[in-house]
Amino acid sequence: MALEGELVILREERHEDQRLFVELRNDLGTQGWNVALPPTYTVGMYVKRLEAMEFSYERDSARLSVVHKETGELAGYVTYSDVEPRIGATIGIAIAKPFWGSGVAFDAQEVLLRFLFLELGLRVVHLWSHSGNLRALGLAEKAGFRICGRVREGMYKNGRLLDTVVMSVVREEYFALHPEFEDLLPAPVSPPTAIG
Amino acid sequence: MREEHFRTERVALRALESTDAGALQTYLNDPALLGRRYIPWGMADIAPLSLSRVEEILDSWAKEKKALTLGIELRETGELVGHTGWYWGWDTHCPSVWIAVATDHQRVGIGSDVLLLLLTHLFENTPAHNVNGWIAGWNDAGLAFARAHGFIEAGRIPRCGIRDGAYYQEVMVDILKPEWLTERGRSYGA
Predict the structure, then answer these.
(1) What is the pTM of this model?
(2) What interface predicted TM-score (ipTM) does this complex get?
């Protein structure tokens, strides 16, 4: 079964994806949330990074390419990392500007969350952003994330001091937003509905 | 209290060596310290540690390139009574700090001495603007300590683990350089 949503498919990253990933990394508007990086990354660097990945059944992180179903075009990628098995993980997303506002980012995030909650059985998913990235914060809120931490003036970017923002969505909140799924995973705590 | 770089009258922060493994194992395995030992991520923080596991921890700390962990030594006796450090993985602008003191040496001011040394170092010798810490939500003593030293709660991250049948949060606390300077009776740029 593919990781498929209404608009996108999430699949393994391939050599031919690396050109777009380099573009996303070298664009200050899409390259990430923390410290700015020089726009000097190359496809060669990214191919080496891809080829350095080794086979393992023990994975605590992944990067998945986001493919637009209708056109077959590569739209960006989603990631998860810092997996605490059956507890939580942190996600990230980078989508090419032509797809902004198209619903692709939201759909990709939804497919990833479905995988993390229904397949990996996580109890919480976190993400990190900053107070200047209103697009990312809004996207996360739409999926049920809530701001749970704000490190004051924790970042300096684009000439401004910004707050580092941490957002989380817990399992019960996710399932409440998705009545089409039934949560059959026993809760590890008592009472089982405790948000915590 | 007079503080030199990494030294107060009472404590000194010093490099940890492999010969510290025994002393480290002794206080890390104190049941009262479990869950707040600030050992490397991914290691079980709620179980007793063998000597070889403690040696792995020392090795891991020694190899860190974006964090520094130092031992807390009592100057009078030379006893190792804890460890502390800071991590600047993302950005030297916003490092995280931690302190672990052996339970039989807590509540005598050692943590306050150590925190003063950490903040003096970070705010006066590095580009740090925000210094933050992560404290388990059940660690009332740790939270009270942070508040008493001017840290402000920056958030509560849900479900960072399970303890005694319940999820627990990690509380983020932080202090800005201007706040710290004001507390010290100085102003920014002075």
Answers:
(1) 0.93
(2) 0.91
